[in-house]
């Protein structure tokens, strides 16, 4: 796969990278700065969000990053290969090319993934995807909510839930992450807020648990 040149810029990060060359800083220094994985992920994600936003392809890139995050989570073999530090870089880029072609990724997303291979940061792609989503949500005023239901929700149901959450949170946009858990019996559970800190439990299972807790609290002590 041939990767184009791209430049990422953000506070604390300025990279001019091609598949064959890493540009040096103004001082010519090649010292490596040791940073925690989450700091690295945040810097790369921030720079990528800024670049995508500047080029007016932020939503397209967000879709690409969602696809990458899903693949890394659900395909153990692919995840193991891409994050293996001794695996061949060219083969990683070939795999990225195949993924990008099948997923119809933007050229910007493909080049970004190649950049991560060149910089030996592809091993942190899952963290970078998480950071990208968080920053994207801040930039676009998007509230992410995980909706767990006893049965799969159709598009109309998801739309109504999103509309109610938009009114509740005041967010400009709502992004739902539907999940199915038959143990809920009926109804649904909605988690939203930073790190899923807020919970709306409207499931039959939750109601039964609440009733049980109330009965136990009212039971006479032995």
UniProtKB/TrEMBL annotation:
Entry's localization field: Membrane
Top-level taxon in the UniProt lineage: Eukaryota
Chief location bin: membrane
Keyword Transmembrane helix recorded: no
SUPFAM superfamilies in alphabetical order: N-terminal domain of the delta subunit of the F1F0-ATP synthase
Gene3D superfamilies: N-terminal domain of the delta subunit of the F1F0-ATP synthase
UniProt key word Transit peptide: no
GO cellular component: membrane
Classification via Pfam families: OSCP
Coiled coil: none
GO MF terms, alphabetically ordered: proton-transporting ATP synthase activity, rotational mechanism
Family: Belongs to the ATPase delta chain family.
UniProt-recorded name of the protein: Delta chain of chloroplast ATP synthase
Organism (species): Chloropicon roscoffensis
């Amino acid at each position: 796969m041939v990767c184009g040149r791209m430049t990422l810029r953000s506070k604390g990060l300025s990279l001019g990278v091609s598949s064959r060359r890493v540009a040096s800083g103004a001082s010519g220094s090649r010292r490596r700065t040791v940073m925690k994985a989450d700091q690295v992920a945040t810097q790369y994600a921030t720079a990528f969000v800024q670049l995508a936003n500047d080029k007016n392809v932020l939503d397209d890139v967000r879709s690409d990053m969602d696809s990458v995050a899903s693949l890394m989570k659900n395909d153990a073999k692919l995840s193991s290969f891409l994050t293996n530090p001794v695996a061949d870089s060219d083969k990683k880029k070939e795999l990225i090319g195949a993924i990008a072609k099948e997923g119809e990724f933007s050229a910007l997303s493909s080049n970004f993934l190649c950049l991560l291979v060149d910089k030996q940061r592809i091993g942190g792609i899952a963290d970078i995807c998480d950071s990208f989503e968080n920053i994207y949500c801040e930039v676009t005023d998007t509230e992410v909510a995980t909706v767990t239901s006893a049965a799969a929700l159709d598009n109309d149901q998801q739309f109504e839930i999103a509309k109610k959450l938009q009114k509740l949170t005041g967010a400009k946009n709502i992004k739902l992450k539907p999940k199915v858990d038959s143990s809920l019996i009926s109804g649904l559970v909605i988690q939203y807020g930073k790190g899923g800190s807020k919970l709306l439990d409207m499931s039959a299972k939750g109601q039964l648990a609440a009733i049980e807790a109330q009965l136990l609290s009212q039971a006479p002590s032995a």
